[in-house]
Amino acid sequence: MDLNLYPVKVFVEVVRERSLTRAAAKLGISQPAVSAQIKGLEEKFGDRLWRRGAKETGLTVLGEEVYAQALLVLAEVEELECLAAASSEKRAPTLGASSTPGAFWLPGKLQQLQQIHGLRCDYRIGNSAQVSSWVLEGSVLFGLVGELTDFRDLEQREFGRDSLQLMGPHGHPLAGRKNIQGVDFRGETLLWRDHGSSTRARAELLLSSVLPHFGRVVELNSGEAIKEAVLAGLGLAVLSSWSVRRELKEGLITALGPKRWSEQRPFYLIRRARRPVRGQAALLWNFLAGTQGPTGGPRNDCPDR
């Protein structure tokens, strides 16, 4: 039998909480998702594991046996993870980073890490949702993200903030306008990231009142591609202050609109909760957690309406 351990973990959590609803809350998933995992596990074993009556809930006889074995199996898995963590001390740790900190913050910090501690580190770039998934599945040791998904199995620590702002190219007709209305965006193109990006999620919230007025919306999966498109006059975009420091200083890009179209965004260092880190991994976590990214953003003289 090909048995996935995730439903087993869900089953153990249901038994511990004695409730599908409470287990769902602790796991950070929906109650129907928990029910689906239990049902799939029961199909594997060919019988009920958990009684779901109105008057009585709890383990069946088979459920008692499965629960006892599940605790042993999961304990063995924890031991293997500890061995893996110890083994990882002997090779370069791998990080995952969302595009903004991965491009504009992490390289400089890794250079400092190598100079100060002689530690080299590999890293992968994805959006915030992808990075969180990589951390949970163990394909990267730590992650740097701009959007925290509701995973109860992640430990998080804020390490810096950027400022998000609607921006356009130098000389755009809306630059300097104090009272921009939604209708002013008719015929304009909005450029933004793919789903799973924290910049995309924040842009949807910041521009919710004016989104219907844009002539078209174009989705690109690269922050650099969006910035270059804005510089070329192909559209407007919500951009990170970390990514446009040089362009703002040189007057190539300008902030648009009132202050309600800008906000500070925290970035988080994440790792799997309750997973021990030792050696180089511990050094890396403490180094990144103890450093701070730049804060603040573009100056925008347009008052909020």
Description:
The chain is an alpha/beta fold and 305 residues long. It has two domains: 5-88, Arc Repressor Mutant, subunit A (Orthogonal Bundle); 93-305, D-Maltodextrin-Binding Protein, domain 2 (3-Layer(aba) Sandwich), CATH 3.40.190.290. 41% of the residues lie in helices and 21% in strands. The protein has eleven helices and eleven strands. It has helices at 5-17, 20-27, 31-45, 61-87, 99-104, 106-117, 128-137, 198-206, 223-231, 245-249, 279-289, and strands at 50-52, 57-59, 94-98, 122-126, 142-145, 154-169, 189-192, 216-219, 236-240, 253-255, 262-272. The strands form two sheets. Strands 3, 4, 5, 6, 7, 8, 9, 10 and 11 form a nine-stranded mixed β-sheet that branches. A two-stranded antiparallel ribbon has the order 1-2. Helix 1 crosses helix 2, helix 1 packs across helix 3 (31-45) and helix 2 crosses helix 3. The protein is flat.
How are the secondary structure elements laid out?
Elements: H1 5-17, H2 20-27, H3 31-45, E1 50-52, E2 57-59, H4 61-87, E3 94-98, H5 99-104, H6 106-117, E4 122-126, H7 128-137, E5 142-145, E6 154-169, E7 189-192, H8 198-206, E8 216-219, H9 223-231, E9 236-240, H10 245-249, E10 253-255, E11 262-272, H11 279-289
Parallel strand pairs: 3-4, 3-5, 7-8, 7-9
Antiparallel strand pairs: 1-2, 5-11, 6-9, 6-10, 6-11
Helix pairs in contact: 1-2, 1-3, 1-4, 2-3
The amount of helix comes to: 40-55%
Query: What is the average of the pLDDT values?
Result: 84
Total strand count, please? 11
Count of separate structural domains: 2
- Uncertain segments: 296-305
Spatial gap, N to C terminus: 63 Å
Q: Could you name the CATH topology of the largest domain?
A: D-Maltodextrin-Binding Protein, domain 2
Percentage of residues in DSSP E strands: 15-25%
Biggest β-sheet, characterized? 9 strands, mixed
Overall CATH architecture of the largest domain: 3-Layer(aba) Sandwich
What spatial form do the alpha-carbon principal axes imply? flat
Structural class: alpha/beta
Number of helices: 11
SSE arrangement, N to C: HHHEEHEHHEHEEEHEHEHEEH
In angstroms, what is the radius of gyration?
Answer: 24 Å
CATH C-level label of the largest domain: Alpha Beta
